[in-house]
Amino acid sequence: MNKLLNIIALTLLMTQILHASGQGHEYRVNGLRPKIYDNGLNSNFVYSIIQDDYGLLWFGTLNGLNTFDKHVFNEYLTSSGYMKCKINCLSVARDSLFVGTDNGLSIIDLNTSAITNVYCDNAWGLSMMGEIITKISSPNNGLVLFGTNKGVFSYDLVSKMFEPIMFNELQNYFSVNDIIFNDIDSVWMIASNKGLIVYDDINNDVECYTLNDTLDIAINTILHYDGNTFFVGTDIGLYEFDYKCGTYDNISLVAEREPVITKIIIVDNDLLIGTKGNGLFKYNLHALDKEDIVDKNVYENILSDNFIIDLYCDNCGVVWIATSGGLGTLSVDNKAVSIHKYYSQGTKLQPVWCIEEIADPKYFIGTDVGVLVFDRINGSFTLLGDYFGMDYQPLQSYRMSTLFFDENRYLWIGTCDNGLYCFDTNRKKCFNITEDFNVKELADATVYEIVRGVGNTLWVASNKGIFLLNLDNKTVKSYVHDPSDSFSLPSNIVMDLLWDNGVLYISTSDGLSLYSPGNDKFITYRLEETQEHDMATNFLFKISKRSDGNLYIGSYINGIIVFDIENKQFVLQNDSLELNAPLVFSIIFDEDNNVWANTNNGMIRYDMEYGVIMNMSDNIDFKGTEFVPNAAEQSSNGYIFYGGINGFNVFNPFKVKVDATNPEVIITDFATKKKNYISRIHNGDTITLPDINNSFNVSFAAINIDKVNTVKYKFKLVDYDKDWVVRDVKKRYAEYKELPAGTYTFLLTASGESKQWNSEVFKLVVQILPQWHSTIWFRIDVVLIILVLFLLIVFYRKEKIRQRIMYQQELDNLEKMIKKLTFKSLQLQINPHSLFNILNSIQSYILANDTKSASIYLSGFAKLMRRLLTVSHEQLVTLFEELESIRLYLELESMRMKNRFTFSIEVDDDIDIRDVDVMPLLLQPFVENAVIHGLAHKEGPGFLKIEIHRVNKSKLLCVIEDNGIGRKKAAELNNMFLKRHRSYGIEITKQRLELMKTINDEDYFVNIIDLYDDDGNAAGTRVEVMINIVE
Question: Distance between CA 890 and CA 216 in Å, rounded?
Answer without folding.
Answer: 145
